[in-house]
Amino acid sequence: MNDYLRPIRDVDLGDAGLVGRKAAVLGALLNAGFPVPDGVVVTVNAFDRALAGDPSADVSMPADIAARLAEIDPALRDQSLAVRSSAAEEDLRDASYAGQYLTVLHVKGERELLDAVRDCWRSAFSEQVTTYAQSHGTARASRVAVLVQRMVPAVCAGNAFSADPVTGERGQVVVNAVSGVGDLMMSGQASPEEWVVRDGEAARRSTGQGAITEEQARAVADLARRVEARLGAPQDIEWAFDDDRLWLLQARPITALPDPPPVRVPIPVEVPEGFWRRDDYGSRVPWSPMRRSIFMDVYNATRHHMFQYSFLAGVEYREVGGWMYTRMVPLDGLDKIMERVSEIVAAVRSDDAWRLIDEWHERGQDALATKTAALRDVDLGALDDEALLRHVSVVLDLVEEVHETHFRLASASMFLVGEFGLLVRDLLGWDVRQTMRLLSGGPGKTTEPALALAECARVARSRPAVRKLLDDPEEALSGGLADADAEFAERFAAYLRDFCHRSVGVDLTEQTLAERPGLVLGLIRDQMNRPELRTAGLLEARDEAVAEARALLAERPETDRERFDRSLVRAQAAYPVRDDKAFYTALTGGLVRYAVLELGRRLARREQIGREADVFLLTIEEALAALADGEPRNTLVARREGEREWARVNPGPPVYGEPPAGWGGGDMEDKFSRLPEEAQYALRVFGWVTSEFQSAQGSAGEPENGALRGVAASPGTYTGPVRVIADVSEFGKLRPGDVLVCPETSPEWSVLFPCVGALVTDSGGLLSHPAIIAREYRVPAVLATGRATRTLRDGQVVTVDGQSGVVETVE
What we know:
This protein folds into five domains: 5-150, Dna Ligase, domain 1 (2-Layer Sandwich), CATH 3.30.1490; 156-253, 2-Layer Sandwich (D-amino Acid Aminotransferase, Chain A, domain 1); 276-442 and 539-650, no CATH class; 448-532, no CATH class; 708-809, 3-Layer(bba) Sandwich (Glucose Oxidase, domain 1). A hairpin with a 2-residue loop joins strand 8 and strand 9 (201-204). It starts with a strand and ends with a strand. Residues 91-99, 135-139 and 696-700 have low confidence and may be disordered. The chain is 46% helix and 15% strand. By secondary structure, the protein is of the alpha+beta class. The relative contact order is 0.08. It is elongated and about 110 Å long. Residues 735-805 form the PEP-utilising enzyme mobile domain.
């Protein structure tokens, strides 16, 4: 033979440039004793000869190459053959080219063989191969060899992954099988049955027609593992059984294989006494050690401020088995209760709630904005280690200050809104939904980020160069935006600076929007063709509700009307504070993330941890100590990663312990009547807030006739496609007009609302963040369905009725 044809048994991995990657690998495996069908390779030299140096020419079969093919071993030539392309750039770790080149099966006779080889050559110039090559940074496909092998008369065939291609787990083999030849499965013409083989045990994971037996599944898994061991990396193999034997048809690295999950390290589960609930808000996954070390103590030290007007001491946080649990802490003993009564009386007499809200509007918000802006603008990379440690200390001090402010204002705003709600119920008989109409629609941090984003969209809409560039946000970020429109680029940079440094997830591990500018540009692009948000309309709706209430009060005594007007002013000032303060709490979370990441960058650069994100597997104390002592923390990181993985797959129960009995027992009405008037009043206000909003939480219940039920949180009806968004990492999935389905939202999600048609959540109530935001944007919303994210799927069309609290599937 010559350099146009080469027996497969005479090639090895070093010949990939001549025979293509597929043939080179199979030749190496054949020589290592693997069951590879015999054959020959038509080398890339023959491909070059066919092109005659002109890649634009039509590919024909040169007479001398045809003559060589006619001379191959009759024992091979006279059988049914499988003819497959084998390109030099095929079957690589980052580009498999799977299914891109041509395969021709059941080839018989000289004429069919020549045609099959020529067709394989021509496939190198197909549109799909060219597109695939360009998507991987290559101008066109590489030179193509052709592999000619004996056709295996398969009774069953398929592929197998020596590691799980979805989870990355290396301990199990995933086997797919169909009856007959495997190409039926690869082309999508047949649905495979799937087996998982682990520790010598084979289990069928999907329904099927019994294409293979359990013994055959184990044999395929063993072959896949042996191929992986030989080639030194997880492999995707193609295989076939004839009547007597298992054959190996192809082997290539598994592309885009996730990192293997860490080895699980069990965590002792020590349950404290009392009644504990798992913290489901923020506990979709276990807290990272970094978050726990910073925020658990802060929550325990500050959250009690929320309960200033109640007989609760606060909320305690504990980690149990890697998950965060909370319990309501009652006041301990009569002395503590009487002390709280005196505090409530003093707070009501001094109008402490209004003092805090007024002070926030007058000075507090501006002072906090100044502090956070100064820390946001620090160039962390320019600090030496000592300066970075000082910066971290300042940020951590701010965390505690901001959370104390947050929870004090939560208590004050809740009291003033509750005071107003109680008054409106007594004077007008209105429920909580009607009361909220009197408060929604004013300016605040709920709408400010989205309004600023809408203004960016309005400007972009009027500038063709920007509009065109936003079709490809990543190109815009590479410098094209500043070149196309410097003014718009400056406006966009200002938006990122002012609104996008907030934490938008439940853990420090999640990126801020400032770290994902392409996503923000995508939101601007999506809003360009949506109606502009009219803040005037929101205020008009509130004014109409106020006018309606005043009309109903017209015949009431003047003192009632004055009480209403005074309480309305106070409640309208207090209502937006809920999310205004949360804006700065989230911004502080972003500042913590940035400081911790800078620690991680330095530790990774000094090889004390493997990568910067590993810093989140340390506590803040451990990270600071590592920066100071220079010692590696890789072993600790690996253990923490294993502990977190164990916790993830072993979530604790929703509750531990039994709910406590009511406070004090006996005749509660009698005890209540003995309290000072101010304490009775404060407890009635607190009772209105808890009872009204708890009753408005609703219950998910079972779906009825395919419909989900929940809290009717924002009126209106909308029909559109579902988009399930779990967290900020999936914001990019959302399309204008989608029905946003999510576990829960926070104020940081408000930038999505101008694009959504309706909102459906698993949890929440009428005073929750998603309800507030939905009402502000007049988006129909149904909350607290309990199971929307598990029941609904992307693209499914539903009708959301925010008046009745029903979500129905549209057939």
